[in-house]
Design a protein that fits this description.
Blueprint: E1 4-7, H1 13-23, E2 28-33, E3 47-51, H2 57-66, E4 72-75, H3 90-118, E5 122-126, H4 139-160, E6 165-171, H5 196-207, H6 215-227, E7 234-237, H7 239-247
Parallel strand pairs: 1-2, 1-4, 2-3, 4-5, 5-6, 6-7
Helix pairs in contact: 1-6, 2-3, 3-4
Organism: Rhizobium sophorae
Keywords: Oxidoreductase
Pfam families: adh_short
């Protein structure tokens, strides 16, 4: 029987590649994004491209009213935000939390009832390798992802009782994604002059990383997480994320 996966944030990057990965393996895919654009994908009757704003309760409710049973939810939608914490407006921090943390929790809460009633289903929350190490100039962003790490670890226990699995996928640094473009405020505006000397070697390291992550790495990690029937919670994705996880 063909299974159905709902993926948030599929307009580019990890989400788009993951949607294509599952489509190529015969799944039904519900690909959501703020501004739906079916032309991003090859035509197939197993794909629906749907509108979703994870920060809007009405948008979430409308989505779940329009779709049927979901076997897997992948919470991938997120915003980037790096820079000196001192320079970050609280409005930006709130936007990061609303999308990266509360948005994930809201999607989980929306899908849990049907999975609990069926005694089956999987939720995959995509976080980041910032949860695996200490990354300067990413304090607020790290907080949003660390929150989901703790949330998922606890949720896995309470939903496990009902046969529902919760998994974490932790991507590393992927230069080919739109992480920088998805930042609400450009990095250059969040780096006061006093931080220049501190930031220089960090920026140089990001410009020439020894290990990186690709979109395909993340799609494959999500595939593995969905098909894992054991108690494994965390799935680092990408060579750099794997190195950080092994060093812990």
């Amino acid at each position: 029987m063909t299974k159905t996966i709902l993926i948030t944030g599929t307009s580019s990057g990890y989400g788009k590649t993951t949607a294509e990965h599952f489509l190529s393996r015969g799944w039904n895919v519900l690909a959501t994004m703020r501004r739906p654009d079916p032309s991003l994908f090859a035509g197939t009757d197993r794909l629906r491209v749907l509108p979703l704003d994870v920060t809007s309760p009405d948008s979430i409710a409308s989505l779940f009213e329009s779709v049927g049973p979901i076997d897997v939810l992948v919470n991938n939608a997120g915003l980037g935000g790096v820079g000196a914490f001192e320079a970050m407006p609280m409005s930006l921090i709130r936007q990061l939390i609303e999308t990266n943390t509360i948005g994930v929790m809201a999607m989980c809460q929306a899908v849990i009832p049907q999975m609990r009633e069926r005694r089956s289903g999987t939720i995959v929350n995509v976080t980041s390798s910032v949860a695996l190490g200490e990354f300067p100039l990413a304090a607020a962003y790290t907080a949003t992802k660390q929150a989901i790490e703790g949330f998922s670890a606890s949720l896995a226990h309470e939903l496990g009782y009902f046969g529902v699995r919760v998994k974490l996928v932790e991507p590393g640094y992927a230069p080919t994604t739109r992480f920088g473009a998805n930042a609400i405020v450009p990095f250059s505006e969040l780096l006061p002059g006093d931080y220049a000397d501190f930031a220089r070697p960090i920026l140089e390291a990001f410009a020439n990383p020894s290990l990186t992550t690709t979109e395909s790495d993340v799609a494959e990690a999500i595939w593995q997480a969905v098909h894992d029937t054991g108690n494994r919670l965390r799935f680092p994705a990408g060579a750099d994320a794997l190195a950080l996880a092994q060093a812990r």
